[in-house]
Amino acid sequence: MATAASAAAAAGAARLAYSALNRRPPGDPKAWSRTNHRGEPVTLLEGPAVAAGAITGVLGLAVLRSRTGSAGWRSAAAAAVAGAGAAAFGAYDDLAGSGDRRGFRGHLGALRHGEVTTGAVKLGGIGATGIVCAALAGGSPADVVLNAGLVAGGANLLNLFDLRPGRAVKVAVASGALVATGGAVGTVPPLAAAAALLPEDLGERAMLGDCGANALGAMLGAAAAGLPRPARIALLAGITALTAASEKVSFTKVIERTPALRWLDTLGRPGAEGVRAGGVRAGGVRAEGVRAEGVWGERLPPRSGGGLGGVVPPGPTGSLAHADTTARSAEKTDPTPQEE
To answer: Which residues pair with 285 in a beta bridge?
Structure first.
């Protein structure tokens, strides 16, 4: 009962926050606007709305469980810190990052040359957030290190999947369900918040951005702290392996080449039947000016010789997602080797 109520609170808070942020976006409205891989304008405000809803939900769950005599404040505080910290550093990278350096290699390479990128600041900030979160959750020194890795690793990994509409949320749902099988009910509020705004994501009106994807991944990692140690070790090993693989392998290309994954990935998107490995169809017309491997939240350069080029197709009105877009790309790329 408490879990269901917290899920409803998280979903409701996320919808309310999204509506409020669209009416009064913080700072410059254009800073929150991007153009996706199909040339559709989208807003990054889904990210802070999901983070706000998820944090509301986990705190609500702690309140409801305390009334039944169940302890839960430490885990709730840890999850809230994980979500708030990851969201803050992710938003900083969303708004201030240039996207010139990408992935661990890019940011660490810049540091070796004395350049501190926004991505490097985010990596360090989320790492520190993971340590604080793990310390709040408690446990032995080994558990603190392990749980910190789950928070920071989960935040980074989920962000790598925010390359197509709805993909990161679908991965979060699958991951959260896996963690929940071990009894970690703390995954429910974050997933409910993300699911509440999934229609906006799939409808190509909004995207999680670094803010939302980092927050969602961090909170799922914090929830995993309730699993037995062997399960947490296996989970962290999987996160590490996938993160390392992302430096060499394109997740998007793997998904496109695997029929079952491609079907799941495009499920719920408008015109999903038009998506093919060789290109993207927008409204039944092949979008020659849009790269099939393009970035979800990136402004792509127009191609000469026809097609959609740099023209943004008309979409629904009444949302910040349709404000003028900025020329700066979001740092949302599928880290693929140059030769690919």
So the answer is: 282
Residue 327 has a pLDDT of 31
**C-alpha to C-alpha distance for 254 and 263, rounded to whole angstroms:** 12
CA distances to 120, 167, 183, 281 from 136, in Å: 24, 31, 20, 48
Distance CA 245, CA 236 (A): 14
Distance in angstroms (rounded) separating the CA atoms of residues 110 and 112: 5
C-alpha distances out from residue 179 to 172, 189, 315, Å: 10, 13, 37
Between CA 150 and CA 256 the distance in angstroms is 28
* DSSP one-letter string for 33-60: EEE-TTS-EEETTHHHHHHHHHHHHHHH
Question: Does the predicted TM-score (pTM) go above 0.85?
Answer: no
For residue 151, the surrounding DSSP H or E stretch is helix 141-160
Q: Which range, of 201-205, 226-230, 250-254, 273-277, averages the lowest pLDDT?
A: 273-277
